Description:
The protein has helices at 10-13, 19-32, 49-56, 68-80, 115-146, 160-164, 209-212, and strands at residues 38-43, 59-64, 168-178, 186-191, 196-201, 216-220, 226-228, 233-235, 238-239, 241-243, 249-251, 253-254. It is of the alpha+beta class and 265 residues long.
Amino acid sequence: MAYNEFAYFYDEFNGEADYDALYSHIHSQLEAHGIRDGILADLGCGTGELTLMLTQAGYDMIGIDQSEEMLCVVRDKAEQLGLSAEDMQYEGLTYGTKHSYTVHKGEALFPRIDVAKEIAELTRQDEERRAAAQAANAAQQAPAEETRGEALEHLPEITIDDFAKCEMRVAKVLECENVPESKKLLKFKLFDGERERTILSGIAKWYKPEDLVGKNLVIVANLAPRPMMKGKYVSEGMVISAEDSEGKVTVLQLDAAIKPGSQLC
């Protein structure tokens, strides 16, 4: 198996290997068989730890490995031991020509990892990710929390048939004025797409008559006519408006492009 790019991290991950013990065992076995020098081949030499230890012991070593990247690491280490490129070529290998090696100071091939520092950095990154996730989650939940209002008082449920009985149409305000006999009422003359009609609405507190002239409002068109102010006026429908929890009333106004008489559906 070729380790390829992994070769440059091999020693770091293989840091627990006891090369000193392995070297001592091999060296003692060689001496036990009367082999104190000569040419040795290290099959599967990897990054050359054992190969170079035997080199320093006086053996002429041939490092063999399937991975070119592993052999490149061996060369880098060998150069720090004072071996030249020629010394590492098989063609120029001659037994007994190299008896000592001068170690040169070089750059660290495998800088040691500060484990505590790395763990602290990973912890910091994890905390940042958690904080970002919590912020995103809070942002998603915020709109839902804002829509939780106070409990409302509801009317009894109706059927779709009940709702269909209510005829709501668009009506354009032709005239609007205060009712002299009341501080609350405005008198509207509206065109509902078919005819003009009069509707009285108790919104004088929130609107000036002139502000509503020309506007498209929504009316309940089929509400039974209702005499008001002792029969002086007859209201022919209802202007639709909304009242908030503080009692403020807002008239429902539609786009001017919508034709009077259009029915809400």
